[in-house]
Amino acid sequence: MAKMRSFPVKIWETVSKAGREDPRRVIHSLKVGVALTLVSFLYVLEPLFKDVGQNAMWAVITVVVVLEFTAGATLCKGLNRGFGTLCAGSLAFFIEFVTQRPGRVFRAVFIGASVFLIGAVATYVRFFPKIKKNYDYGVVIFLLTFNLITVSSYRVENVLHIARERLYTIAIGCGVCLLMSLLVCPNWSGEDLHNSMVYKLESLAKSIEECVKEYFIDMETKADEDEPDKDDPIYKGYRAVLDSKSTDEALAMFASWEPRHSRHCYKYPWEQYVKLGAVLRRFGYTAVALHGCLESEIQTPKSVRALFKDPCIRAVQEVSKVLMELASSMKRRRRCSPDVLSDHLHESLQDLNAAIKSQPRLFLSPNRPANKVLSSMKTDPSALLEWRTKRDHPNHPKGDATDRKAMLRPTLSKIAITSLEFSEALPFAAFASLLVETAARLELVIEEVEELGRVAGFREYSEDGGVD
Amino acid sequence: MAKMRSFPVKIWETVSKAGREDPRRVIHSLKVGVALTLVSFLYVLEPLFKDVGQNAMWAVITVVVVLEFTAGATLCKGLNRGFGTLCAGSLAFFIEFVTQRPGRVFRAVFIGASVFLIGAVATYVRFFPKIKKNYDYGVVIFLLTFNLITVSSYRVENVLHIARERLYTIAIGCGVCLLMSLLVCPNWSGEDLHNSMVYKLESLAKSIEECVKEYFIDMETKADEDEPDKDDPIYKGYRAVLDSKSTDEALAMFASWEPRHSRHCYKYPWEQYVKLGAVLRRFGYTAVALHGCLESEIQTPKSVRALFKDPCIRAVQEVSKVLMELASSMKRRRRCSPDVLSDHLHESLQDLNAAIKSQPRLFLSPNRPANKVLSSMKTDPSALLEWRTKRDHPNHPKGDATDRKAMLRPTLSKIAITSLEFSEALPFAAFASLLVETAARLELVIEEVEELGRVAGFREYSEDGGVD
Q1: Tens of pLDDT, residues A336-371
Q2: What digits encode the pLDDT tens for the residues B21-78?
Q3: CA of B111: how far to CAs of B95, B98, B108, in Å?
Q4: Residues of B in contact with A27 (CB under 8 A)
Q5: Average of pLDDT values for B107-125?
Q6: Mean pLDDT lowest for which of A39-53, B313-327, B447-461?
Q7: For chain A, how big is the Rg over CA atoms in Å?
Q8: What b-and-e string marks burial along B181-214, b requiring 16 or more CB atoms within 10 Å of the CB?
Q9: What 3-state class would DSSP assign to B334?
Q10: What pLDDT is stored for residue B139 in this prediction?
Q11: What's the CA gap between A34 and A28, in Å, rounded?
């Protein structure tokens, strides 16, 4: 009963969540509704029906298929559809011209052969990476139109007329789509791409800062889960970056179809955004490795970590500050400050270096009292045995599969790793080294943002634009 | 002239490359050609034309749009198309029933309103993640059919007839598609997904092994490029894994539409493949970090590295062997050997530990003669100044932009990183720690492969199945 009642609640949650995540979705839905109603008038209103008649259906189909969420996607599909229809019409007309004279059987054979040939070739062409990226839909429409016209030409006399009618109504459909997507509350792919880069810079900044801070707060409170928690701010921060390749590329592709909506007229460098995305992903991998230090099975004792807390946190704050500055300059579409790579970062790294140097004893591992801390994780050959015994019963009842999994994991970890008595400073060394690596990668990010600012013609840095 | 002649060569290369990469593409193209020719017969042959007539066009459209590369994708689209048409037909018939009585104006208004409402609602529904994932195409077709039928109902009397005819011909089209994709040389998404996992395990194994080996060969021969070389086997190995999220998910989605083509009848656990893919990506991030150690600006001197060469290489070979064993067991669809996590890995890690312990002096950084090696990379405040000066001339002539970039990079790196005199063993410590981390992550991979073997009902491990 409770389940029954919760069903509408669930539906309502899904409905409202989609709208809250991006309110433009509601507007887009209304736009589609209006566009469809508009093209329906072609059929319903008497004077319009006289002109286009039955073919009004093609306009309806076009609107349903072409009107996409962003202006770039709509343009891409609309132009592909128009151009595909045009090409197919021309080719079909040519074939019609060739087959005009001979007898019916010859025509049937010729039509069959050309349908087969063009079908196979067009399908094969769709596998070419360049065609697939930009013109896939155009080829589909080409094939569709070609077949429709060629096959109808067998029974209908005036194929040219069909082709022209179809082209007109598709043009009307595309026109309505472009009107709705370019002029009524347009959503630009280019802007989405730009904003997503700003968002990614910000989330990376937050993610690494959070990550280093968490490394230095007491580790006892942290549950040792292997699956990253979805709401963990660190994970959330870099996750947005890691899996963004396909989204970035699609947005850049659609953006390249969009007209430039600002003062410069040259081709906007969307490819540079894709490059920046790639560099950010590489930066993200270091963030993942840094996060891995938090989740690692061998941990440096708290007392040791505390020695390096301040320089590490200062260093990461500097890195994070640079990323935030880059994000804010991108957001305002201005070049970043010449001081973006400040002396502070350099100084904080030097402080970290000094701190490490001042504690040489730590990097000498054996026979130190701190070994006691690790004693609970020493070599445990019985664990391996235990694990094997369990594995030999694969038909373990399913009911406690989760219990088993939970139990299995620490056991396995013990075997693989913690039974070794590595120097306890080794994991910290890895952490510090990754932090330094982060600073090194930062420089590539700065370079790409700089390059983007240059080729995209962002305005020059000025003090009153301010660093916030 | 040479350019003109090279154009056909280029075309031919593109054509043959697409075929060589995956010969099934050629077969698929021929299949599409045959399917199109088959449905064209509906229109061309007299007895068939009598039955379906003008509506044969819908069969042609269906084939062009529905016949996809893999069986799963075709089924997904075909069933979505069929079900969408059916739903739309029912709803349109209901609306037709409601508007039967009243006058023309009322009908026009009612049709306009329902087109708007259904258009907006259906578009909004497409934003729901669950609908978007599985039924996006179905909703589009629903909208398309609903509009066609509702709008035609204004002028045509027998809408039920239109709807039925359309459904028949679409069913014929879908039938031809399913026939071609399920029975004639079918390409299964599920098999692609399975093979891609095997391939990924193998490439990760090769990638990390290559990476560690390269760390210990002489570093002088290596050019210090920041952009990873596309043909670098290390980069190639993990790249296949990193950006695989969307492909994996699409394949798993299509595979879930495919009928099971083996003995068990229960739902095949495609989701487990997606999980395994996620774990492999996480493993891949460690591989990236390990690769980062090769490209890092601060490097441990060769003499120091040589001390740890053997245990490191042994350890990575053990890790790589485990991955290869997992790949080979997945390839044969059998559970992996109970000895997959062998004592050898454990031993090699202990050897590495012993080697690190035996050289405690190395982790004491300051005032050692090896500092000489790093002397060329010492603090260089002039570099920062030089960099700033250059940045202040953003309108630098474009011609030497690449020269400038090449020059800028080492300079910047010097500022950020190498001007610090970190302990030279620190980067090695990071490398060793990441290697140990790799072994720890390996365990998660084993667990997911095990789980996959269990839920997918792979056959039990047997000695004669052999470890190769």
Answers
A1: 777 766 677 777 877 777 777 666 555 544 333 333
A2: 888 888 899 989 999 888 888 877 777 777 666 777 888 888 888 888 888 889 888 9
A3: 8, 11, 5
A4: none
A5: 88
A6: A39-53
A7: 31
A8: beeeebbbbbbbbbebbbebbbbbbbbbbbbbee
A9: strand
A10: 92
A11: 10
Mutate to test the interface with B, among A12, A24, A36, A145 (most CBs of B within 10 A): A36
Q: What is the mean pLDDT of residues A432-449?
A: 82
Reduce the secondary structure of B122-178 to three states and give it as a string. Answer: HHHHCCCHHHHHHCHHHHHHHHHHHHHHHHHCCCCCCHHHHHHHHHHHHHHHHHHHH
pLDDT in tens, B162-172: 777 878 888 88
Q: Which residues contact B125 (CB under 8 A, 6 or more apart)?
A: B131, B139
For residue B119, the chain A residue with the least C-alpha distance is A33
Within A296-342, residue ranges assigned H as helices are 302-331
Distance from CA of B285 to the nearest CA of A (A): 6
3-class SS at A459?
Answer: strand
Contact B430 A425 (CB under 8 A): no
User: Is the per-residue pLDDT at B332 higher than 70?
Assistant: yes
Q: Nearest-CA distance from B135 to chain A in Å?
A: 15
Of residues B362 and B255, more confidently modeled: B255
The secondary structure of residue A415, as a DSSP letter, is I
Q: Is residue B350 within 8 angstroms of chain A, CB to CB?
A: yes
B459 beta partners: B334
Q: Where are the alpha helices (DSSP H) in A179-301?
A: 189-216, 233-242, 245-257, 270-295
Indicate the residue type of B159.
V
Q: Residues B377, B418: contact at Cβ < 8 Å?
A: yes
Percent of chain A beyond pLDDT 70?
A: 74
Of B356, B388, B454, the CB nearest to A394: B454
Residue A300, chain B, CB below 8 Å: the answer is: no
Q: In terms of C-beta density within 10 A (0-12 exposed, 13-18 middle, 19 or more buried), how is residue B307 classed? A: middle
- A156 to chain B, any CB pair closer than 8 A? The answer is no
Contact assessment for residue A307 and residue A284, using Cβ atoms and an 8 Å cutoff: no
Task: Output DSSP code: residue A180.
Answer: I
- Average pLDDT for B159-181: 83
Q: Which pLDDT score is estimated for A101?
A: 67
CB pairs under 8 A between A and B: 333
Using the predicted structure, report yes or no on whether residue A318 has a pLDDT greater than 50: yes
Distance CA A270, CA A256 (A): 7
CB A135 within 8 A of CB A80: yes
Cβ A48 vs Cβ A158: under 8 Å? no
Cα R_g (chain B), whole angstroms = 31
d(CA A178, CA A63): 10
What is the model's pLDDT at position A425?
65
Q: What are the chain A neighbours of B443 within 8 Å (beta carbons)?
A: 409, 412-413, 416
Q: Does A91 touch chain B (CB under 8 A)?
A: no
Distance from the B146 Cα atom to the nearest Cα atom in chain A, whole angstroms: 10
Q: Kindly determine whether residue B115 and residue A37, on different chains, have CB atoms separated by under 8 Å.
A: yes
| Mean local confidence (pLDDT), A214-234 | 61
Q: Does A7 touch chain B (CB under 8 A)?
A: no
Range with the poorest average pLDDT among A51-55, A116-120, A162-166, B309-313: A51-55
Reported ipTM: the value is 0.76
The rounded distance, in Å, linking the Cα atoms of A115 and B379 is 71
Closest approach of chain A CAs to the CA of B450, in angstroms?
10
- Phi/psi at A429 (5° precision): -60, -40
Mean pLDDT score of chain B, rounded to an integer?
A: 75
Amino acid letter for position B414: K
Residue of A nearest to B361 (CA): A364
pLDDT at position B375: 29
Q: Which residue of B has its CA nearest to A414?
A: B440
